[in-house]
Design a protein that fits this description.
heterodimer; A: 2 domains; 6-stranded mixed sheet; globular; B: ABC transporter involved in vitamin B12 uptake, BtuC; 14 helices
Chain lengths: ~260, ~350
């Protein structure tokens, strides 16, 4: 097992004056590993991933990126290591898709300089990797939710990160695009040793992941390989519903709820 | 396609620098043509050759017409560029110094200063500039605080609070006019209507001393503003210091609007129409829209003023009336289009 590249320890977070939304959550991600964060709505998944992306400052705990504590990284240099795909991006302006993807090259562009032809190539490659090359010249605002998500994924890939954080990337994707997303991530893991941390409700997608961390009311409720976590009893406990069923079929696990 | 006009064609992967250069070259030509029109048009025809022969034409040209065109250039550029910056910061195509009440705040500040004494100075800077800047800063801070809840910027709350700030400041200006002596009241009224009427080049030079550096700093932020216009979280994860950028750009906008309002009154909708026109022509990239708005805004106000000077056989219309008549309908059209998009 290689040395974990990201180590988050004992993270706490609370919104404004509310109670702790995340309590004592720890998480590591090695090079080329895929980690899924699961849990019911409001369990703190998004809060954890937003802390890892630097959008929320943990109330307590520490995050180590490579050799350095998270907050010691220069933001621009950190942006070359960690990319973030939000749940949805609603831009008010009809940016052209390729320009939007090109913005992922910003951390590599010196101040007062523009992206060059090489950056445009990288942006095109990223669009191809995300299976969205055909959208390059469209206005972003004219795309469907699923198409937008693939474009935002391409923007994150254009950052050439070591670690990709995805917040519910599959929620607006159809079956084909979900499969495509997981294939893309798996391929990048092989070719670039990309590490992935992803929150999701789509448990079936997590069968091929290395590690699953389940949250319940802001605390770690279960952790382990998909084989260990995707079980009737564990899932019933996480989701607070005794009728959750998991069934192994080949190398995938089907999960459903008896109604 | 969604009825989106095609940006002027360049290859799909044309480098950003080439697109910026091309757009700015075209808009510089537009500005040069507008300056020529602005200098040529007026109640008196001034033939170029008479500038050498006739001292009356020379005075008319250099003391009145040239300063007026330059005033249009400076104020138009300022309003349009702040419009573009505010739209990016608020991620709202309807934002503009006028619609957000920033101009109104500036106008109230300036009115107070005029009532206290037009020519007072603090450390060499006219008190009117300072008061107007303070008013504009107060307005933009207020609107921003009301519109922002947590990480979300509410577009409805933004525009409504802009409307309310405008109403409050208008009432404040009226009160001051009522309370002050008749001479000051008349001065405020005349200035409020919005006019580019100046005598001599000194007032323009004084403005440029503050505005020139402010424009440059604003332009230096166009990369960050471009990322912020896409999405705030995205910008933050791409290495933009969001809070710092916001604070600096808000202050710059208040400064620029404050200075222009104190000199030319609250001229509306330039900051709305111009950035939108630049977008339609050259796409959404703020690194084009921001400098492009500076150039096209200057051209737009020079032409609007030329129209104001010649629309009536005798006398002239206030330039604010022209920009309002042109800009109001564009605002309504944008509002309608936005509802159809329903991206928020």
């Amino acid at each position: 097992m290689p040395q974990p590249w990201l180590q988050a320890r004992h993270l706490d977070y609370a919104y404004a004056t509310g109670p702790l939304a995340v309590r004592d959550v720890s998480l590591t991600a090695a090079q080329g590993s895929m980690t899924a964060l699961i849990g019911s709505n409001g369990s703190g998944k998004s809060t954890v991933i937003r802390m890892l992306a630097g959008l929320l400052k943990p109330l307590a705990g520490s995050i180590l990126l490579g050799e350095l504590p998270f907050e010691d990284w220069q933001p621009r240099l950190r942006a070359r290591q960690v990319a973030y795909v939000p749940q949805s991006t609603a831009t008010a302006f009809p940016f052209r898709v390729l320009d939007l993807v090109l913005s992922g090259r910003a951390p590599y562009t010196p101040a007062l300089r523009f992206e060059n032809a090489r950056d445009a190539e990288k942006a095109m490659e990223a669009l191809e990797a995300a299976g969205a090359a055909h959208l390059a010249d469209r206005p972003f605002t004219s795309l469907s939710g699923g198409e937008r998500q693939m474009v935002i994924l391409a923007r994150a890939l254009a950052q050439e990160p070591r670690l990709l954080l995805l917040d519910e990337p599959s929620s607006s994707l159809d079956l084909k695009h979900r499969a495509n997303l997981i294939r893309t991530l798996t391929r990048l893991r092989e070719s670039r040793h990309l590490s992935v941390i992803m929150t999701t409700h789509d448990l079936q997608l997590t069968s091929g992941f290395d590690h699953i961390l389940a949250l319940r009311r802001g605390e770690a409720a279960a952790a382990g390989t998909p084989d260990e976590v995707l079980r009737d009893k564990v899932l019933s406990d996480i989701y607070g519903d005794p009728n959750v069923r998991a069934h192994r079929m080949g190398n995938q696990t089907l999960v459903w709820v008896d109604v | 396609m969604t009825g989106q006009p095609e940006p002027i064609a360049l290859p799909l992967t044309a480098p950003v620098a080439a697109r910026v250069f091309r757009a700015l070259a075209i808009l510089t030509l537009v500005l040069a043509a507008s300056v020529a029109v602005g200098l040529a048009v007026g109640s008196q025809r001034i033939h170029p050759s008479s500038l050498f022969a006739d001292s009356v034409s020379r005075t008319l040209f250099f003391r009145l017409r040239l300063p007026r065109v330059l005033m249009g250039l400076v104020i138009g550029a300022s309003l349009a560029a702040t419009g573009a910056a505010l739209q990016a910061l608020f991620r709202n195509p309807l934002a503009d110094p006028y619609t957000l009440g920033v101009s109104g705040g500036g106008a109230l500040g300036a009115s107070i200063a005029i009532a206290l004494g037009w020519s007072a100075r603090v450390a060499g800077i006219p008190l009117v500039f300072i008061a107007s800047f303070a008013g504009a800063m107060l307005a933009v801070t207020l609107v921003r605080t009301i519109a922002r809840t947590g990480a979300m910027m509410l577009p409805g709350a933004l525009l409504l609070s802009g409307v309310v700030v405008n109403l409050i400041t208008a009432a404040g200006v009226l009160t001051i006019q009522y309370l002050t002596d008749p001479t000051s009241a008349l001065r405020i009224l005349r200035w409020l209507i919005g006019s580019l009427d100046v005598v001599g080049l000194e007032p323009v030079g004084r403005m440029l001393l503050i505005l020139g550096p402010a424009w440059l700093v604003l332009l230096a932020f166009s990369k960050q503003l471009n990322l912020l216009a896409i999405d705030e979280d995205t910008a933050a994860t791409l290495g933009v210091n969001v809070r710092r950028t916001e604070t600096i750009v808000y202050a710059l906008c208040a400064l620029i609007v404050g200075v222009t309002v104190s000199a030319g009154g609250a001229i509306g909708f330039v900051g709305l129409v111009v950035p939108h026109a630049v977008r339609l022509m050259f796409g959404e990239d703020l690194r084009i829209v921001l400098p492009g708005s500076l150039l096209l805004g200057a051209a737009f106000l020079i032409l609007a003023d030329a129209l104001a000077r010649t629309a009536m056989p005798s006398g002239e219309l206030p330039v604010g009336a022209i920009t309002g008549l042109l800009g109001g309908p564009v605002f309504l059209w944008l509002l309608r289009r936005r509802q159809q998009y329903s991206t928020m």
